[in-house]
Write a structure and sequence with these properties.
The complex is a heterodimer of chains A (127) and B (624). With 127 residues, chain A is mostly helical. Chain A has four helices and no strands. Chain A has one domain. In chain A, 80% of the residues lie in helices and 0% in strands. In chain A, helix 1 packs antiparallel against helix 2, helix 2 packs antiparallel against helix 3 and helix 3 runs antiparallel to helix 4. In chain B, strands 5-4-3-6-7-8 form a six-stranded parallel beta sheet, with helices on both faces. Chain B has a six-stranded parallel beta sheet with strand order 11-10-9-12-13-14, sandwiched between helices. In chain B, strands 15-20-17-18 form a four-stranded antiparallel beta sheet, with helices on both faces. About 7% of the residues of chain B have low confidence. With 624 residues, chain B is of the alpha/beta class. The chains are: A mainly alpha (127), B alpha/beta (624).
Chain lengths: 127, 624
């Protein structure tokens, strides 16, 4: 067993899982989406991104680009939420949470691609 | 650039992750710990404020307790946050600084910068591999000629002086091993702007692999390699398309010429001197017994040259004798004096001080004169800074490898036709040589003439019409008239005409795989192009000593010229510029032929045509 692979797989899957957890629930109901979950998703996604630095294979490049996409989506969601909660004057809470959740949904898609890549790579090596 | 970015990212993975973890733990703690607002109501910090507080605390800016004064629990947590984050930042910044000091990283960064600058270069340049004594001399000379230079050198110490040396445009430097193909490619040898690769490292092996690597990577680039070993030299000649410069052999050949054909040697020296200067006095070497002190790569070709010209030569060495098929008669003596006496220095007419060490050569010269005060001394000089020492010994002739190499390389680059002309001079009879000399002296005088090449380039505006007209071909003597007053002749002598190849052939790229030495037409195509030509073609050295077909020495005045023909001229200073007028503008050649300066603009051409038509009509009606 390779510890590096364990850590790598752990963070990739955790990033996807946290993202999914935040995304889960009715898109228009703020009480179903906790900001702490988004914070955790952002953090773990950033760690996953840094872990993917420096792999110069083709697969590594795709891994890195999926993580980049996910991070950008999640950071945009966090920024927008901050703006809507603290700065924006006439933003309804429902509209704000809908935007944030849909942005995190995009990130979830990217994270799913990342997980698929991880599984595909593992299966190819197993054969 | 991508390489360097990836290197940075990979090396900074651990510190970046540490920072992210520290920040996220700190923020999560700030959010989790309950606080109170200014009214004393329970209040929890949101992620936005937590991130703000951690950001200024972690970077030790410390705005204070915002937005409300902290509770003791929050303060406890902030203490932990401060120490954690200071450690995190210290680790991250330390990693960045140590990476920027890392020699491997600096090399990668310098290389990627070099590659980017080479990629952006849009002017002709030469790549010089090896920045030793010869390399330095060549780089400086090329820089003085206004040519961009790339230097590839494996030893960073040698190239460190480039930054402080006075160059017109400092050469781009790559510290890497040029034997590796990717280094050659990074140096830009495959770009069309690359005119030539000059391999002058101190190591024959390295020069060989650079030359062969360049030929394989880009068969179109000219390669000039310094190779001393005769076996390596013949290997490269067999490979084809590589110009080999062997300073030791050249020196020995010149010595041989000084005995067997002094007139040819004198003419050569005269033609290759710096234009406008007084010619060097002819080298007169005494015939008889010669002693060679120092027998190795330098001494051996000299001994052979001396014996070929009928002198007797005996050699000895104070160091270890080279192994292999060297002369078995050569012996080893511990003391120089003993060796000189054993080889017959008392009765010798000449002594060659040819050891690798300058101080040993000096003592050889002194002891040789002690044995025989009348003796002629030839000396080898290794280091440039010993020039004064060597000069003080007053040798008849000094061999400086870097000077000779510089001379050969520059000549090959600037006037490749002169190289061919000189190699042919050694094959023609003495009468022709003195004929050339007489004509040159009558036209130019005693001074060293300028030597240049005129190419009948049909792509230029001046000659395209004349060259494509089969009925009135361009004659050589037309190029030798003064374009300003056709009655007077230019002070120039055509030394050689190289017939151009058919246009269709020269347009097709010749593949590198074809054997270059066998195919005469392709060899002509390759032979010499001039440095300023759009793309210099290759020249195979060594194999084309025999007189080529399509090559005329001292051509007759009425020689008809075709497209692509190249003429080597020697003449007075400034004549080349006058002659160039024939290339750029069709006016001069018509003026020379008809005596009429043709009208240039469309209106004046129409007027002239009308005038001639009217004149013709007038003559016709007069007759009727």
């Amino acid at each position: 067993m390779n510890l590096e692979k364990v850590i790598f797989g752990f963070f990739v899957i955790l990033a996807c899982a946290l993202n999914f957890g935040f995304f889960l629930g009715d898109i228009g109901r703020p009480e179903l989406h906790h900001p702490g979950e988004l914070f955790a998703a952002v953090t773990v996604n950033l760690i996953a991104l840094v872990l993917k630095f420096g792999d110069r294979t083709q697969l590594g490049a795709i891994h890195l680009s999926t993580s980049l996409a996910a991070c950008i989506q999640l950071l945009a969601a966090a920024l927008y939420w901050t703006w809507a909660a603290h700065i924006g004057q006439n933003v309804s809470e429902v509209a704000a949470i809908a935007t944030v959740v849909s942005l995190s949904g995009g990130a979830l898609l990217a994270n799913l691609v990342s997980v698929v890549l991880l599984i595909g790579e593992t299966l190819r090596q197993a054969r | 650039m991508g390489d360097v970015l990836f290197l940075i990212l990979r090396r900074l993975r651990a510190p970046l992750i540490t920072l992210i973890v520290i920040y996220s733990v700190s923020i999560a703690g700030m959010v989790a710990i309950p606080g109170v607002d200014d009214q004393g109501n329970p209040w929890r910090m949101g992620f936005f404020h937590a991130f703000y507080v951690i950001s200024y605390t972690a970077t030790t800016i410390g705005f204070g307790e915002l937005p409300y004064p902290f509770t003791d629990a929050q303060r406890l947590w902030v203490i932990a946050v401060i120490y954690l984050s200071v450690i995190g930042w210290a680790y991250a910044l330390g990693s960045v600084f140590s990476l920027s000091q890392d020699p491997e990283f600096r090399q990668a960064a310098a290389r990627s910068l070099f590659v980017r600058r080479v990629g952006l270069l849009r002017e002709p340049y030469c790549v010089v591999c090896g920045y030793g004594r010869s390399g330095q001399a060549i780089v400086q000379a090329l820089d003085a000629l206004g040519v961009r230079v790339m230097v590839v050198e494996v030893d960073a110490h040698r190239v460190s002086s480039i930054a402080v040396q006075p160059f017109h445009r400092a050469p781009l430097v790559l510290v890497a091993d040029a034997r590796r193909p990717e280094v050659l490619r990074d140096a830009g040898i495959a770009k069309p702007e690359c005119r030539a690769v000059i391999a002058v490292t101190g190591d024959d092996e390295a020069n060989q692999s650079i030359a062969i690597g360049t030929r394989v990577l880009d068969p179109q680039t000219r390669v000039i390699a310094r190779v001393i070993d005769p076996v390596a030299q013949s290997n490269l000649a067999d490979f084809g398309g590589i110009e080999v410069v062997n300073p030791y052999q050249t020196f020995a050949d010149n010595l041989e010429a000084a005995f067997s054909m002094p007139d040819v040697l004198q003419l050569e020296e005269w033609l290759t001197g710096s234009p406008g200067s007084e010619p060097a006095p002819p080298l007169r070497l005494p015939r008889g017994h010669w002693v060679l002190a120092g027998y190795g790569r330098f001494g051996r070709p000299i001994a052979e040259a001396l014996r070929r010209t009928g002198q007797t030569a005996e050699a000895f060495d104070t160091g270890d004798l080279p192994t292999g098929d060297y002369d078995a008669r050569v012996r080893r003596y511990e003391s120089i004096e003993e060796g000189l006496r054993a080889c017959g220095a008392e009765r010798a007419v000449g002594v060659v001080a040819g050891s690798a060490s300058d101080t040993v050569n000096l003592s050889i010269a002194v002891m040789a004169r002690r044995c025989n005060p009348q003796v002629t001394v030839l000396m080898r000089q290794g280091r440039a800074f010993n020039a004064a020492l060597i000069e003080a010994a007053r040798p008849s002739l000094t061999f400086v490898q870097s000077d000779l190499l510089l001379h050969e390389v520059l000549q090959a680059l600037t006037t490749p036709l002169l190289d061919r002309f000189i190699s042919h001079l050694r094959l023609v009879d003495a009468q022709q040589v003195s004929q050339i000399r007489t004509r040159l002296e009558a036209t130019v005088g005693q001074q060293v003439p300028s030597v240049w090449m005129f190419e009948c380039d049909s792509s230029q505006a001046g000659l395209s019409g004349v060259l494509s007209n089969p009925f009135t071909p361009l004659r050589l003597d037309e190029l030798m008239r003064d374009p300003r007053e056709p009655g007077s002749r230019l002070r120039a002598v055509p030394l050689m005409v190289v017939k151009g190849a058919p246009v269709a052939l020269s347009a097709s790229p010749d593949s590198g795989s074809q054997p270059p030495a066998r195919d005469t037409t392709s060899r002509l195509l390759r032979a010499g192009g001039g440095f300023s030509a759009s793309r210099p073609v290759r020249q195979a050295i060594g194999s084309d000593i025999a007189l080529d077909a399509g090559l005329l020495l001292l051509p007759a005045e009425d020689t008809a010229l075709g497209p692509g023909d190249r003429i080597l001229f020697a003449g007075a200073d400034g004549v080349e510029a006058l002659q160039r007028r024939y290339l750029f503008d069709p006016g001069p050649i018509e003026f020379v032929r008809t005596g009429i300066d043709p009208p240039r603009g469309a209106l004046f051409r129409w007027l002239a045509a009308r005038r001639t038509a009217r004149a013709a009509a007038g003559i016709g009606s007069g007759r009727a």
